[in-house]
Amino acid sequence: MRTTVGIIGAGPAGLLLARLLHNAGIDSVVLESRDRAYVEHRQRAGILEQGTVDVLRAAGAGERMDREGLPHDGIELRWQRRRHRVDFPALTGGRSVMVYAQTEVCKDLIALQLKEGGPLLFEAEALAVEGADTDSPSVRFRHEGREEVLECRYVVGCDGFWGVARQAVPAELSRVFERTYPFGWLGILADVPPSHDELVYARHDRGFALLSMRSPSVSRLYLQVPAGTDADSWGDEEIWDELERRLETADDWRLERGPITQKSVTPMRSYVHEPMRYGSLFLAGDAAHIVPPTGAKGLNLAVGDVVTFARALSYEKETGSAELLDAYSGTCLRRVWQAERFSYDMTTMLHPAPDATPFDHRLQLTRLERVAASRAAEADLAEGYTGFPLD
Ligand code: RFL
Ligand code: PHB
Asked: For the domain that residue 205 is a member of, what is the CATH number?
């Protein structure tokens, strides 16, 4: 099998890249190790930045998002039973975000790809990228019990944190920057209307809590738990009791409970692999970098990477110049590090660490007070949350 761009992974990065290349008249093949149902139902991100919304629309993949997505103009911060709303458009010159689940973005892109795009193979596991340092790299993969080879001009590793693409970069050329956190998030989906019309990020001495949503009738909520916690060690009522404590306010706001339909624990880490390119191999999305979910940046960074790659390859096709492809890693990393900084700030402002001292607690409260008291501090948060420019 032969193609121009071999794409490993059908998460948001790989699927959107295939769509952007199709629109630019460049052929690709997508290899995905899992089956379609798994990819379409894996619960993950929920927030699309303004820039991501614009990209999906321009790619012709925004129709259902515009019908079913929930535009949000702000978030609420809570601490010490207080509430403070951050108004995004007022602070950023009109930018906002959209609540539309990653599962739905993937469903839309898969449907488009199967209808109009190039091959998208499910249950096709990439085993290795070969010849990354040549002009004819290939991907060895297993599909329907057979081992096959996909010959390409370029390979883009969109295979997430646990993928194989990154392994093709020689160790002596790789630099990894990493931080793990001593806590994770216990996330639930519940069949109950969200108890607030915007997302609520709460800092409590017992730990962080987040109220989010998937639709007007489905809530998504998270609790900070110690790293390594087993989701089944938390009973349903125990989860609601804890959410209620951490989200509590001084006024008459109430948390509505409902049947919990899914429960899982996500570890938290910050991770950057540099460079994001080696020869004919490009890394995009979680394959190259991870952020803790507190800033809602992961999916949006993946979108930024593949837009940068698709633009660079289109430019090469039109002008014959590899200038933008050569700039790929540096261009992406500037934006990646801004998001790493923002996600780290949000995480450390809102999550009390298990070994936090009274001094650390006071500092967290002071950072929150600062956001509430200073328009400059508030605007910094709003700019980071609604997203860094795609240049
Ligand atoms: P993905 O989504 O991990 O997709 C990688 C795909 O590659 C496949 N794969 C392989 N295929 C073939 N051969 C191999 N050898 C392969 N190895 C792996 C995998 O099966 C998979 O289909 O990476 P991608 O596309 O880079 O997308 C990244 C996003 O998924 C991720 O950053 C976000 O989900 C992070 N994230 C959030 N991001 C946001 O922007 N906003 C949010 O609100 C947000 N909330 C979250 C999140 C992530 C979470 N978890 C579970 C980590 C909330 C949570 C709880
Ligand atoms: C979600 O709805 O899953 C979500 C929202 C905001 C975050 C992280 C996850 O910061």
From this structure: 3.30.9.10
Atom of ligand 1 nearest to the CA of 161: 3
Residue 143 falls in the annotated catalytic set: no
- Let me know if residue 93 belongs to a domain: no
CA of 296 from ligand 2 middle (Å) equals: 6
SS3 per residue for the chain: CECCEEEECCCHHHHHHHHHHHHCCCCEEEECCCCHHHHHHCCCCCEEEHHHHHHHHHCCCCHHHHHHCEEECEEEEEECCEEEEEEHHHHHCCCCEEECCHHHHHHHHHHHHHHHCCCEECCEEEEEEECCCCCCCEEEEEECCEEEEEECCEEEECCCCCCCHHHHCCHHHCEEEEEEEEEEEEEEEECCCCCCCCEEEEECCCCCEEEEEEECCEEEEEEEEECCCCHHHCCHHHHHHHHHHHHCCCCCCCCCCCCEEEEEEEEEEEEEEECCEECCEEECHHHCEECCHHHCCHHHHHHHHHHHHHHHHHHHHHHCCCHHHHHHHHHHHHHHHHHHHHHHHHHHHHCCCCCCCHHHHHHHHHHHHHHHHCHHHHHHHHHHHHCCCCC
Q: In ligand 1, which atom is closest to the CA atom of 15? A: 25
- Residue 328 clears pLDDT 80, i.e. is over it: yes
Distance 229 CA to ligand 1 centre (A): 21
Q: 352 pLDDT exceeds 90?
A: yes
Q: Give the predicted TM-score (pTM) of the model.
A: 0.96
Look up 263 and say whether it is catalytic. Answer: no
Range of the domain at 319: 5-72+99-177+269-346
pLDDT, tens only, 10-26: 999 999 999 999 999 99
204 catalytic? Reply is no
Asked whether residue 278 falls in the same domain as residue 374, the answer is no
Q: Clarify whether 72 is annotated catalytic.
A: yes
Atom of ligand 2 nearest to the CA of 346: 10
